[in-house]
Amino acid sequence: MKSRNLCNTRCLVTIESLGHKYLIRMKEREYSCLTYTQLDHTEDQQISRILTHHQRKEEKENPQMKYLVKKSMRQIDQESEFIDFDCRVVAIEIGDNVWEGLITNLDEAEFPPEALGFIYHLRWRIEQSFSWLKYGIGMKRIHSIKAEYIIQEIYSSLIFYNLVSEIKKCVLESSQSDNKEEKQTTYEYQINTTKAIGAIRNTFTPKWTKKRTICQITKAEFQALTEELLREKLPVRPERSFKRNLHPNRLMWFTYR
Questions:
Q1: C-alpha–C-alpha distance, residues 160 and 152, integer Å
Q2: Residue 76: enclosing H or E segment and its boundaries?
């Protein structure tokens, strides 16, 4: 029995009980924990495990048993000490000796491994949006400790993200209409979202020396913002990929709380 806990197991069991379908990427250590194999070859297998919060000798010696903390077990079922967990685990090659692990409950006959890779690739824009929310806007670290303030912080981040998206869209459409008679370029261009978040935050954030609201932003300031965003355009390369750089979470101090 593996003692390492998969963070998504409780969520997957809950989704399964509601009759929904899921397709989630797995980290390499999570893949090894669930399949007892390394993520270094193409594989499509059906996994059956028994979830339990016990760590007795008989459970540890049984390879079908998988440890889940008692709190997570109680969130799935208040009474059961053992819960059946079935899923499909797929390993696909996305590059030269680069492998990706996926866990799903989609039917194997209808969704072969190639189709799962294509479906997950279609969801990449969603992953990008979560990345910008977490790291660009700063939702990875919640500053508040009270529930109502946490909700307020989340909603404010989502509103700001929507504001950034709308400004990016308007600026890009305006520039394309102004330059429609110019020479065609090799790539389509998009505005750098990370740079745009910083520029828009600096423009719309009230200053200590001069209190302002969004409605009081002058036309000259907005024009300067537009020019700054257009300088940060990036080419759109659909087939481009980068190696995933993994690093431990860094400690952030909130000593003012």
A1: 12
A2: helix 70-76
Percent of the chain residues topping a pLDDT of 70: 86
Query: Tokens 């992953």 identify what position?
Result: 127
> Quick check: 21 and 83 in contact, CB under 8 A?
no
Does residue 149 register a pLDDT over 60? Answer: yes
| CA-based R_g, the chain, Å | 24
pTM of the full structure: 0.67
Cβ atoms of 133 and 161 within 8 Å: the answer is yes
Give the Cα separation of 255 and 71 in Å (integer).
Answer: 30
- The residues, ordered by sequence, that sit 6+ positions from 223 with a Cβ below 8 Å of its Cβ are none
Residue 186 CA to residue 183 CA, distance in Å, equals 10
Give yes or no for a contact between 63 and 5, defined as CB atoms under 8 angstroms apart: no
DSSP 216: G
Distance, in Å, from the CA atom of 76 to the CA atom of 96, rounded to the nearest integer, reads 40
Q: At what angle do helices 147-178 and 219-231 cross, to 10 degrees?
A: 80
Q: Which amino acid is at 115?
A: A
Helix, strand, or coil (residue 66): strand
Q: What is the mean pLDDT of the chain?
A: 81
Neighbouring C-beta atoms of residue 100, cutoff 10 Å: 19
